[in-house]
Amino acid sequence: MIKEKYITSLSKTLSYILRHNPEDFELKMKIDGTIKLKDLIEALKEDNRFNNIELRDIKELAASDKKNRFSIVDSKNGKSIKANYGHSIKWINLDYEEIIPPRYLYHGTTNEVYQKILKDGIKKMGRNYVHLSKNKKQARRVGERRTESPIILKILAKQMYEDGKSFFKTNSEIILTEYVNPKYIEI
């Protein structure tokens, strides 16, 4: 098993590459958000942190990631990898499945930000979508990335859907939407 610190560093680097900036590692991404694994490994070996990286390291990370951030897919040109959600790259098309959401979804945030959210709603900011959690526990984990005491917002997802808003399923427990108006938010 590879070391936890190494896994964390690798996970953050893959997220950066696959969600935001593949060109910083001189990688070409297809429109479906995939990058060839062999090209990714070659690029990572140029970084001193990963000069000994092997395919099994990336496979282990993708398989063990509790947030299901990455998928390894087969293609006619070999294996590729993609991020399942969290993209800021505007031109990719991940072809998410549109769904009918549950009655409630949740969003974890900081005390400093939640007053602004209650006024302006939840915006996608630099991402392509707003990310919502299926349960409070997951939303708490998301919020804890930014604060020890996150505020959990309840989103009236079913009502949003009935009012014509779209929701999309990812390969994880995350549900995506374009924007959450304050009228659909409860504390």
Per-chain topology:
Layout: H1 4-19, E1 35-36, H2 37-45, H3 55-64, E2 70-75, E3 78-83, E4 97-99, E5 105-109, H4 111-120, E6 130-133, H5 136-143, E7 151-155, H6 157-162, E8 167-169, E9 174-177, E10 185-186
Antiparallel strand pairs: 1-3, 2-3, 4-8, 5-7, 6-9, 7-10, 8-9
Q: How would you characterize the largest beta sheet?
A: 4 strands, antiparallel
Number of strands: 10
Q: Which CATH architecture of the largest domain would you pick?
A: Alpha-Beta Barrel
Q: What's the mean pLDDT score?
A: 91
Question: In terms of per-residue confidence, which ranges show pLDDT below 50 for 5 or more consecutive residues?
Answer: none
Please state the structural category: alpha+beta
Q: Helical region count? A: 6
Beta-strand content estimate: 15-25%
Terminal Cα separation, in Å?
Answer: 41 Å
CATH class of the largest domain: Alpha Beta
**Number of structurally distinct domains:** 2
Helices and strands, in order, run as HEHHEEEEHEHEHEEE
The largest beta-sheet arranges its strands as 4-8-9-6
Polypeptide structure, described:
There is one protein chain. By secondary structure, this protein is of the alpha+beta class. The protein folds into 2 domains: 4-83, Arc Repressor Mutant, subunit A, CATH 1.10.10.970; 97-186, ADP-ribosylation fold, CATH 3.20.170.30. It has helices at 4-19, 37-45, 55-64, 111-120, 136-143, 157-162, and strands spanning 35-36, 70-75, 78-83, 97-99, 105-109, 130-133, 151-155, 167-169, 174-177, 185-186. It has a 4-stranded antiparallel β-sheet with strand order 4-8-9-6. The chain has a 3-stranded antiparallel β-sheet with strand order 1-3-2. Strands 5-7-10 form a 3-stranded antiparallel β-sheet. A hairpin with a 4-residue loop joins β8 (167-169) and β9 (174-177).
